[in-house]
Fold this sequence. Notes:
Blueprint: H1 2-11, E1 12-13, H2 15-33, E2 43-44, E3 47-55, H3 62-74, E4 76-81, H4 85-91, E5 98-106, H5 110-122, H6 124-132, E6 136-143, H7 145-154, E7 159-165, H8 183-200, E8 216-217, H9 227-230, E9 233-235, E10 238-240
Parallel strand pairs: 1-8, 3-4, 3-5, 5-6, 6-7
Antiparallel strand pairs: 2-3, 9-10
Amino acid sequence: FQLLKRLAERGYVSDGAMVSGLARMQEALNERRTKLGGGAWVTMRRRLDNLCIAFVDSETKSGAQTARELAKRMQPGKCGALSDAYGWIHSHLKSDPLLVIADDFSGTGSTLAKGIRPLWQHDDKLLTLLAKEGRVICCLQTAFPEALQRLKSEFPSVEILVMKPFDDELRAFELDAGIFENERERKFARDVVLQIGRQLTQQMPLGFGDMAALVAFHNTVPNNTLPIFWSSGTVNNRQWNPLLPRASF
């Protein structure tokens, strides 16, 4: 109950909060545009021809939805998978381009890094140069520090904008989270959750990357969140029905 209470009070991101985050993204990108190159968008056929908004995961994932929602607001010349962005970049090198990689959430940063890596492999020197000029921006609705550290380590030139940063207060068993009254209670709770989690998702009983996150969105639950909240299965020979089943979001 204490974990659920923390998730509900501080880790739940409503539809309204996501819309507000998109508005802040748009505002931040428009502001960045004034400091880049010619300082203005190039409009062609009512679209911002020198803007590309891309996503790293599949078309059906929430990151792609975030990119599409941002594109509805900004009307870029191109919106699509990051794997298709290199051709756009190469054809717009002389058009003052800006590439935006949009996502709703990053826990460990592994999915984002995996998605960005192939783009850099096309032409490491060119992409690094464009990033140093401020022409490659990773725009995230929410993220944990681990994700930012990983991205900065592998792509130090890429600017990262996070609309709502998360911290240890949304990590179930971190000492600084302040969820449990004492160390004995914290360890007991972790042992119980770990035991149940191993029966639900043996590969990641505390969530992907062992993050034990307490995060949920109005339309999805990241797999970094504790599986006890989103995974169905059998626990001690009884059916486990999660409060936030991922399949229903």
